[in-house]
Amino acid sequence: MNAAAYSPGVVWHDVECGAYAADLPLWRELAGAAPGPVLEIGAGTGRVALDLARAGSAVTALDSDGELLAELAARAAAEGLRVATAQADAHAFDLGTRFGLIAAPMQVVQLLGDRPAFLATARRHLAAGGLVAIAFADELEAFEPEEGRAGLPEPDLGKRDGWRFVSQPVAVRDLGDRVRIERVRVALAPDGTRERSDDAIELVRVDGALLAAEGRAAGLQPEPSRRIDATDEHIGTEVVMLRG
Questions:
Q1: Is there a single domain that holds both residue 37 and residue 103?
Q2: 145 occurs within a structural domain
Q3: Global confidence as pTM
Q4: Minimal CA–CA distance to 20: which of 242, 237, 241?
Q5: Is residue 42 part of a domain?
Q6: What does the alpha-carbon distance between residue 171 and residue 186 come to, in Å, rounded to a whole number?
Q7: pLDDT in tens, 76-89
Q8: What's the CA gap between 189 and 140, in Å, rounded?
């Protein structure tokens, strides 16, 4: 059996991101207080967007990956939820709607190449009194792989259609203004065969003061940030609040 039996983009997104829930209470709180609908940036397969829709929020899920959004839409339909989807570049979208909350969970902002462009676009889509809430990782500690290294982080695990998936972080490299996270991915087919691949992402280093300054430049007013504590599986994050 080969990799065509599953969608790699959807599966690995779910395995590596889908189980995280420590931030959901904060997004529900912010959505409940928002003066208008919610826009999620980098929605993926719907971890946050579907949760907010279940809680009664009107949600638009934006992502550049159409495959992930198609999966999100299918999951929403299966639950009878109404979630609008928009395949667009986070730097320059035009949805013709204003939102009470624009949320960028996890480390989405650290993957963007032009934060000022994103913030300017978000500002144009913000309802009066609305909020842009941006999460970022500020506790990334570098480590290098070693032969026979003990103490690696616990792998992310998943199952789908008889397949089992293991995503093992093997290194976090300090590149100065960026951090490179390297993983080994293993897919175990129902017939026992294995597929191994390497993956890496680079996160731009940011801090709350920098994001606040960039928010001011875009016409947004910083408010006190919020904190999402680390869990056994995930690092802690700060959430910068920028009011329209």
A1: yes
A2: no
A3: 0.93
A4: 237
A5: yes
A6: 16
A7: 999 999 999 999 99
A8: 33
